[in-house]
Amino acid sequence: MAAAGVARAPAACSSAALNKSFRKEARAQSRVHCPFVQSKSSPLRHGGFRSEMLGNGLAAMQAQTRPVERPAVRAAGIRAVAEVVDRPSTQESPVDKQEGLMLYEDMVLGRTFEDMCAQMYYRGKMFGFVHLYNGQEAVSTGFIKYLRQDDYVCSTYRDHVHAVSKGVPSRQIMAELFGKSTGCCRGQGGSMHLFSKEWNMLGGFAFIAEGIPVATGAAFQTKYRKEAMGDETADQVTIAFFGDGTTNNGSFYECLNMAALWKLPILFVVENNLWAIGMNHYRATSVPEIWKKGEPFGMPGIHVDGMDVLKVREVAKEAIARARRGDGPTLVECETYRFRGHSLADPDELRDPEEKAKYAKRDPIKQLKNHMLEHGLAKEDDFVAIDKKIEEVIDEAVEFAEASPHPERTQLLQNVFPDPKGFGIGPDGEYRYKDPSFTAGTAAV
Asked: Which of 7, 124, 156, 208 is the most exposed place for a label (fewest CB within 10 A)?
């Protein structure tokens, strides 16, 4: 069933012109930057939060009887442990027009891409789980747009916008989500496993905490190349993105320890959107201030408003510069919020409507736009032009994905380490099934 506010295409809508018309109509109904396209009330409500276990068709579990004890509200902006990232005592000057519009364009690109993914998913163009990033754009844009192309990013299953911000072309990502051979992983990665060697996008990971050791390894190889191999060009920085629920996993702490011990050039960026599927952050974590968890390892810990791209970018500048000059890792907690359910299969009935409304008022795209208008850095026409440009980019990405071919069946046997037909690999490195003398007398393979 289509989500509320997302139109269905007519059965005969097959031409490029009609598809484009459909997308335009759906856009007008469901966005441009309108959060919470799916919103219903739920009888499961307790202590100001919703609690539910989601599973394969399992009924919702009754909420716990113990009331939720919320910690004191954290101050807006940045808070850090002693002797962490040095910050100037005065507020940074506002961004100039060029930088501000660059940040706005990247966030709009991410939001528009995700909105289009919702349309395509409900039209049956995408399969499996699709997790959207709406609302969290300030984190991706704030950090990744300060990286170089040769820096590394490790993502999660909510990886589309990280890839977009890193520079992977939208058409390649859309084609990947369509399962087409022109995708960034030739149609084999899908929504949760986006990878690009060209852009050092080290992949999305379907299971939480999987990407943190990979990111730590990437940071280690940079340090090893520089210090053990004498490669003076090895100054790349790695960012590992993950959610609040991931910080309850052991590999998170193991990697914090290794990174701090060896002063690896890595940022651990927590996208704390308050919900791990249906589990509220304050129910699952004994110390909810995640940024404090770096201090026992001697690592700087910072808390920042993840709905404000300018504050995120300020932290990113300092933490990335710190890592690049060899001063070691930083743990950053970005308090943010997703404007859709956990995935497009989630009706988003767990969260309190008041909670969602509160964060909707802090939409990062609208905040940046208002900031630039108030400071005279841009005019309304500048934003209209960017919105139009991005719509054209995303429309072209969909048309490219739809016109692209599916992978050949022979691709199934590629990039598979063991012999896919069961005969093993010979001493020459070739599959033994290719040797007629070895397969003689066996069934056809």
From this structure: 124
| End-to-end Cα separation, the chain, in angstroms | 42
pLDDT at 400: 98
Residue 154 counted as domain residue:
yes
| 388 and 443 inside one domain | no
Domain that holds residue 422: 415-445
Residue 148, domain member (yes or no): yes
Q: How far apart are CA 309 and CA 104, in angstroms?
A: 9
- The two tokens of residue 16 are 């490029």
Q: What is the pTM of this model?
A: 0.78
Residue 245's CATH number:
3.40.50.970
CA distance 44 to 32: 31
Structural domain total, the chain: 2
When pLDDT is averaged across residues 70-76 and rounded to a whole number, the result is 42
Q: How far is residue 231's CA from residue 228's CA, in Å, rounded to a whole number?
A: 8
